[in-house]
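Here is one chain, start to finish.
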Amino acid sequence: MTVMEETPGAVDRGRVEGKVAIVTGGGQVDGPGIGTGKAASILLARHGAGVVLVDREPARAEITRKEIEAAGGRAVVVEGDVTDPDDCERMTQSALAQFGRLDILVNNVGVSTPGNVVDMAETTWDEMIDINLKSVFLVSKRAIPAMAATGGGSIVNISSIGALRSIGFPAYSAAKGGMISLSQEMAAQHGPQGIRVNVVVPGAVQTPRQRSAADKLGAELEQVRRMAAAVLPLGQTTRGTAWDIGYAVLFLASDESSWITGQALVVDGGQSVTVPPVALASLQSRLP
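Its structure:
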């Protein structure tokens, strides 16, 4: 738990009061901890936003909706696939129909597959690019006109430390790196419409999906967490969670960041300034 984490049911409204947000991947997957989509959604709702929770599996998003509404917030669930243009249009139209406007878009969906470019199937590469990068284009393409119609808004794209350094997931990392470049282009081109576009770059944070990533790498979850803690500058004093990512999203979504656009905010406990855990693991395997 981080010092910034809010307790369940806490109410501290105002930072995005009256705004409307779409959060893709707003559901909760199985596993320990809380996911970034759920954490961001809860914080946006606690601070006054109406939230459209998009998930390919609506039952997951219903978990988030119930928690938001139990705390007095507003949320609706929209079943949708971020790689389907029609579904992307329906997300925006649902926000307009339910809440009358759209001010915030959080592109949070992501999937990963480890490997290398020699062994990876081309179909896997295409899937990683479609889900992790093309989806940002598809969802933003529909959301931007709705935002511009009411004076602007804020788009927050969730990238990965893999965009900045090797983590053993080449297609995922390439897509997340492309997300940063795409965000800069969108920021430059749509700024005159009052639309800001920024990126949150999470490091090794403890979410339910961390277990899945560890499984894909053939490692134990606790081993991954211990190694991350050992090399992170803040690893001995705190543990990053999805709440840390959620607070970064809340800041970039709010008017507190009204003079910030085209930027990548790294939330990684210092991971990007140290030796990558994947490099240490590789070194250990080569030592006699």
